[in-house]
């Protein structure tokens, strides 16, 4: 028998990439028919998004919903507000599309959404389609989502003002200021939205997490045992992209450049699809990399005062390198490569010359680094990235975390120190050993008959019954 799965991703490469990977793995195991229904916003052309969708196999179909208008949203609105509104304003067309699909093809046996899709459960209740969540974040983040309404009742103050570290069940203790960014301001509407949507998690039939038991045993046990987590939880990760099918010229150039350098000698620097730095911070990073004397491959986007300015389009806006300090490119030309906007990250992390990853701590980036045994420098920017940094440093011991100074900057000396230690120092060597143990566990988790493969088969079976 065949099942029909509908996947409704929220905007952002960090959600789309793992959902596409999930779809492809499901097709490897079961006779399923998969439809992606994609919400879009006016003016948000995501070039890498289209590349990924165009490369999908034929038995996955794609329906783009009419773009919604976000022009009434103030420029400084939180990124989570933009995502949530893109989703909710698309609900009427989601309903229409589901009605059409139910009439013309097989009724969906499951709707799969990511973290921002839970409000759709109320909208499509009458379709009677079992709803599942695919968590593109860590098990620790999922624990924190369930615990948020509890913490909200427990503390009247802002999370960052709680004196002692917060102990989430099964997780490494975390300071309130390192909890998710949207939870940092109770007066912001996004805070209430997060509380509301975390309550909706309990309406799902099951939650798939892109993580694996061996990476976060405490958090997975807590999710299984805690009476606050009602849905079944399936650890199905690490699901990471197996590599780009169509390499761009820039991509090919990166890999050829890496070929020329010694094993584990290059630091890969990237802040994900959406991360951006201020002009001042870019200067400090450039001088820090230069000072360190180490090799580096830096994916760079033009400066912006907001840390997630390219989230909706993953592109750099100005002349690719015109904003760098005078003479920088010339001075580092023998040991530094700069790429504008987008690089083949999975291939770079899998290349033997890559010895470290300076990352903004997006969950996909972390998984990709772990799967390839690359130790990290954690430089979290937004969303739940600070909590991920705590997991990497205090929990797993596979990363340094950069120190931010009193002006909100990571200074060149700090960068110099972290880079030297990671690539050439004793601490870096120890972290490399630890992360290579995790690499082996990750490979085991996705091999045949292993924890994540069994979980994936288990849930896929429910969708064909
Ligand atoms: N990515 C990439 N090339 C880039 C930047 C990002 O291939 O130049 C991919 C990266 O491999 C990962 C995803 O985009 O799969 C980013 O997801 P993540 O969760 O790390 O961060 P986000 O972009 O959602 O903040």
From TrEMBL:
The enzyme class is transferase
Q: Does the keyword Transferase apply?
A: yes
| InterPro entries linked to this entry | UDP_glucos_trans (IPR002213), UDP_glycos_trans_CS (IPR035595)
Q: Which UniProt keywords apply?
A: Glycosyltransferase, Transferase
* A Pfam family: UDPGT
Offer an example of a GO molecular function term for this protein: UDP-glycosyltransferase activity
- Superkingdom of this entry's organism? Eukaryota
E.C. number(s) listed in UniProt: 2.4.1.-
This protein's record includes keyword DNA-binding = no
* Recorded family membership: Belongs to the UDP-glycosyltransferase family.
What protein is this chain from?
A: Glycosyltransferase
Q: Which organism is it from?
A: Artemisia annua (Sweet wormwood)
């Amino acid at each position: 028998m065949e099942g029909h799965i509908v996947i409704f991703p929220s905007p952002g490469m960090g959600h789309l990439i793992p959902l596409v990977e999930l779809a492809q793995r499901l097709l490897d195991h079961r006779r399923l028919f998969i439809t992606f229904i994609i919400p879009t916003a006016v003016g948000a052309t995501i070039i890498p998004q289209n590349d990924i969708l165009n490369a999908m196999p034929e038995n996955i179909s794609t329906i783009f919903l009419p773009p919604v208008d976000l022009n009434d949203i103030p420029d400084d609105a939180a990124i989570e507000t933009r995502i949530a509104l893109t989703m909710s304003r698309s609900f009427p067309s989601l309903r229409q599309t589901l009605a059409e699909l139910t009439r013309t093809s097989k009724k969906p046996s499951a709707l799969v959404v990511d973290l921002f899709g839970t409000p759709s459960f109320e909208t499509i209740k009458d379709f009677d389609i079992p709803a599942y969540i695919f968590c593109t974040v860590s098990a620790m983040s999922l624990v924190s989502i369930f615990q948020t309404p509890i913490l909200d009742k427990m503390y009247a103050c802002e999370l960052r003002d709680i004196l002692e570290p917060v102990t989430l069940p099964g997780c490494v203790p975390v300071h309130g200021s390192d909890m998710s960014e949207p939870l940092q301001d109770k007066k912001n509407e996004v805070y209430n939205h997060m509380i509301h949507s975390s309550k909706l998690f309990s309406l799902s039939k099951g939650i798939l997490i892109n993580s694996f038991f061996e990476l976060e045993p405490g958090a997975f046990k807590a999710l299984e045992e805690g009476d606050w987590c009602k849905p079944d939880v399936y650890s199905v990760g690490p699901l990471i992209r197996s590599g780009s099918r169509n390499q761009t010229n820039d991509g090919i150039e990166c890999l050829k450049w890496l070929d020329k350098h010694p094993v584990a000698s290059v630091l890969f620097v990237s802040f994900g699809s959406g991360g951006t730095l201020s002009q001042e911070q870019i200067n400090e990073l450039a001088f820090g990399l230069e000072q360190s004397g180490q090799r580096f491959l830096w994916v760079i986007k033009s400066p912006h005062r907001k840390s997630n300015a390219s989230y909706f389009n993953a592109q750099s806006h100005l002349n690719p390198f015109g904003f760098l300090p005078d003479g920088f490119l010339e001075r580092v030309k023998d040991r530094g490569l700069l790429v504008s906007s987008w690089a083949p990250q999975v291939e770079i992390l899998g290349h033997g010359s890559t010895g470290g990853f300076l990352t903004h701590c997006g969950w996909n980036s972390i998984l990709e680094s772990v799967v390839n045994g690359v130790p990290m420098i954690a430089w979290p920017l937004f969303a739940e990235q600070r909590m991920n940094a705590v997991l990497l440093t205090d929990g797993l011991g596979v990363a340094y975390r950069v120190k931010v100074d009193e002006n909100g900057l990571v200074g060149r000396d700090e960068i110099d120190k972290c880079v030297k230690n990671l690539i050439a120092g004793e601490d870096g060597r120890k972290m490399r050993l630890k992360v290579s143990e995790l690499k082996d566990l990750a490979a085991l988790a996705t091999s045949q008959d292993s924890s994540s493969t069994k979980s994936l088969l288990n849930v896929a079976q429910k969708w064909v019954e």
